[in-house]
Structures are given as structure tokens and as C-alpha cells.
Design brief:
- The protein contains six helices and six strands; from the N terminus they run H-H-E-E-H-E-E-E-H-H-E-H.
- It has 134 residues and is an alpha+beta fold.
- The protein has one domain: Beta Polymerase, domain 2 (2-Layer Sandwich), CATH 3.30.460.
- Strands 3-4-5-2-1-6 form a six-stranded mixed β-sheet.
- Strand 3 and strand 4 form a beta hairpin.
- Helix 2 crosses helix 3 and helix 2 runs parallel beside helix 6.
- The chain is globular and about 35 Å long.
């Protein structure tokens, strides 16, 4: 993964954050697997939110960036939606399902990627937390 790849992931991250997805994590798996370069994990608080996040990602990427998924699985149930964009695979989980399967634990050797949009989100969460502590 090159330094230029992280900003190229911003459309995906921004689409994910557009419906208030939680715990967004991007992993560089290019050297660990042959079928993708990046896995992005995120969560929703309910199966309805998971489905809404997945729908929003698909519509936002298509509308703003003309990026279409190769395949989308699991959007009806809303427990685990897998969105295959070729080099980027997005996993949208209902939080208890994410904890149960612990895919991030399986890819512990992968490097975390911080994109500009993700860094901004992490910064905003920290500011919100500081305000809540006051």
C-alpha cells in the first residue's frame, strides 16, 4: 500500500460515516491476501442501521464517484453486510455479530490505515468526548 492509497479510500470512508457508522477500521491486507488490498470494518447499533449504512454506501459511491460494487451480500438481514468493491471490501456489522466473529482478530498482522476522513472523524469523536466530560 502506498501513501497515495489512504486518500483514495476517503470516498469509501466518507460514505460509511454518512450514516453514523461506529468503530470504523481500515486494514491494509494487500500483502496478506490476493483477493483484496483493503478491508474496511464498521458497525451499526441495530440491524436496521446496518442495512441503512450499507444502502447509503452503495448509493453514495455510485452517485458521487461512479463506483459500483461487484457484489453485496447480507443486506436484507442486517447482521453482516459484505460489500465487494474489488480492491476494497467493506464489512458492515451489527455490533454483537462483529464481536462474535472478530474478523479484525483474524487479520491482526494487517496494518491499520488512517485516511484523512478517518483521522478527521477520530478527532471529532475525541472533541465530543471532551465536551461530554465537562
Amino acid at each position: 500500500m502506498t501513501k497515495d492509497t489512504a486518500p483514495s479510500l476517503d470516498p469509501y470512508i466518507e460514505a460509511i460515516l454518512g450514516k453514523k457508522a461506529l468503530n470504523v477500521v481500515a486494514l491494509d491486507v494487500a500483502e496478506l491476501t490476493s483477493y483484496a488490498d483493503v478491508f474496511i470494518f464498521c458497525s451499526g447499533r441495530s440491524n436496521r442501521q446496518v442495512s441503512a449504512i450499507a444502502d447509503h454506501i452503495q448509493v453514495d459511491l455510485k452517485k458521487k464517484h461512479k463506483i459500483k460494487p461487484i457484489s453485496v451480500e447480507g443486506s436484507k438481514d442486517g447482521h453482516w453486510v459484505l460489500m465487494d468493491y474489488g480492491h476494497v471490501i467493506i464489512h458492515v456489522f451489527y455490533e454483537p455479530v462483529r464481536e462474535f466473529y472478530d474478523l479484525e482478530g483474524l487479520w491482526v498482522d494487517a496494518k491499520r490505515i488512517i485516511t484523512p476522513a478517518l483521522a478527521k472523524q477520530v478527532g471529532n469523536e475525541g472533541a465530543s468526548k471532551k465536551m461530554a466530560d465537562l
